[in-house]
Design goal:
Largest sheet: none
Structural class: mainly alpha
Oligomer: single chain
Number of strands: 0
Shape: globular
Radius of gyration: 30 Å
Distance between the termini: 47 Å
Number of helices: 33
Strand content: under 5%
Length: 590
Amino acid sequence: MAVDKREALRRAKAALDAHRSDEALVGLWALVDRPHLSADEFERTLRLMARAYAMNGLGRPVSAIHLYLGDHDTALRTSDDPRDKARVRVAAGQLREAAKLYNEAGLLGHAAIQLEDAGDLRGARVLWERLSQDVRLQSEPYTLGLVRFNLGRCCEAQGDDAEARRATIAAIHLLEAAADGFEAVGLRERAFDCFQILLVLGRDGAFENLAEGYRGCIRILSEDNLKYYVLQYFEDFQKLALERDVAAAAALFREAAAFCRRHQLPYETHYRLQAAETQVRAARLLEQQATPEMAENAYASAIDLFNDLGAYSRIRDVYEALSKLELGDARVARYRRLQQRLAAEQDEPINTVAFPDYLRMDTAYPEIWRLDVIEWEQQGDAAETMSEVILDAKWPDFTRRRALLCQLHQLGTADALDLEGLKTLARRLGRVEIYAALGPLEFMIDHADAGVRAAVVEAARQLFFKRTFGLIMRGLDDEIAAVQRQALEAVRQLHFGHAFDPLQRIYHRSQDAAVRSAALESIGRIPSLESVEMLIDALRQGTPDERGQILGLLVRADHSEADALLRRAHEVETGPTKEALAQVITSRRR
């Protein structure tokens, strides 16, 4: 039903003039919730809503509205909650004052971050130390590890290397324990977060931490069958290793080559050649360090690698280098004879294909060591979570509007939200369509009411993040059919790149034909080589009904290298699968 905006505003003003604030709010919500409201219209409606909430004696929503509108003085004056006042100070750039207010509210992590940004490292360090003693964190190694990580960074910035080292070591142990715990319960995404932070620690610290972080990430990505992400992490790790530990880099190139061989990827020869060249580089470094026996061993490893490639000219070069080492006359003479013996050998052709740039994804990682501490302190409070979004200027106006409406929905009543209010809040969180909405929804998925849980899973359909599937899997396992239906619909609708791994897990673990079919359909709509490979694998092992569905998905597979992959699979397959792939290839040519 169309709403006449002018008439609606006139009625709302009349209701306010008559002190019928609840009646005014009903009409104003109908207006403010419209998707195409202009900025001026949105502001006018918000100001009327602020009047209505003020009549009802609710200062927090009034403060939220004025903060959104940039009226800091009014926002500061209309709420007694220190969290609201702190956000106003942040918006005004008064970070030390904001820290005092967050501290008053018991949000030590929030306060420490503001002091860090204000340059008060001493004050921030005190707060991180206090937060690390919070009894609630003693059973949460992940968040405690983040706090210790932040404490270590703060100590390092102050020049207190001893305390920085102690805090960093504690953070490493805690994050390692958290990663083990997450993996034990199937939360590989959160374990990946732990390894990412270890990786960050290692970039400026010990190479061992860098290695542990990268190897953990590579292992999880490999287990998730995300082959091209695995190679990207290999490449990034190799680049850093070449700067800090050449021998380790040579080993990494060998591991990448072995990975490519196992998964029939075309980059194996490239990595084997890189491993050989890097092994020579490692040998030369050892030679410079006056350790000829160790250099000899490194050169011998390079010879093995070049020999596998048929690169005889490079082997001759290595023998020449060996003949110049101080290894004794007999061994030097032997290396000269071996060099001469290969004089007439011609190199075998080597065709190398490097990992292409177009398969690389952005691996930039947000400051999760801050963001997840903030999320933990918010404890699933939707109003608090959305207030951070409103403050962040990087979000577009429509996102900040939706975040504000979530906040007003929760704060705009004197009592806790009833069941219908919670359902509406869940749906509003979904419409914000950002990662931050997941925290409050994860708290709400444990609600005793099935209707609230169903609304949470319904909201998840609009959140295109790997972490979203934690909610969906909870919904699939719910004992109430209405919740299961919402989860099944979410499986059908979420088919973005990072969804491949959880969709694959859903397919493999579920015994429900409808769930498996929905997972296959979504996998088939992801334009990636991993999805095509998984469908080919499912074609070998799936049920007869699934095979028919898979054939249709393979015919429609939208990836530039799908045809080549299908042809390679057809060459090695036998029996019914080979025949089915032949049908797919023929159909794709039409």
